[in-house]
């Protein structure tokens, strides 16, 4: 199988054929940047927010299929952000990212949760699994949407020239990132 075919198989689309949408919410700019970049490399549309209020506003406007959500945020915490987003978008999937035990953090049952530090491949795999459960599909090879899938895949992650010091700092938090 050639590289384009492999990249196409890694891509997910909404049932209407448009790229899936993911909102990344983290008050640490380096972490939000790295996670957003890796998800964009999947061919997904990604927006980010730095706090709970901004997350709810952006979710209402952007209408994501999934949210990668830090539990400890300034203002409104992650579980409350998830409740408010689901009041508007009941089908949205939420991946909680937490530095503490999920039970202790009050994370609702039924949502995925990863404890930091976490590898970027694990974040991608969890988001991908959640998206498939809500109807995201892989395009057929040779389709119009597949032809435009020439994007780097997880193995390419973040090129060193794009990573910079922020990428190196984030790599300490996300061991799966590859930076010099």
Automatic annotation (TrEMBL):
InterPro entries: CheY-like_superfamily, Sig_transdc_resp-reg_receiver, WalR-like. GO terms for molecular function: phosphorelay response regulator activity; transcription cis-regulatory region binding. One of its GO terms (biological process) is regulation of DNA-templated transcription. One of its GO terms (cellular component) is cytosol. SMART domains: REC. The keyword Phosphoprotein applies. It comes from the Bacteria. Residues 21-131 form the Response regulatory domain. Residues 159-180 are annotated as: Disordered. Pfam families: Response_reg. The modification 4-aspartylphosphate is found at residue 70. Keywords: DNA-binding, Phosphoprotein. The keyword Lipid biosynthesis does not apply. This is Response regulatory domain-containing protein. It comes from Streptomyces regalis.
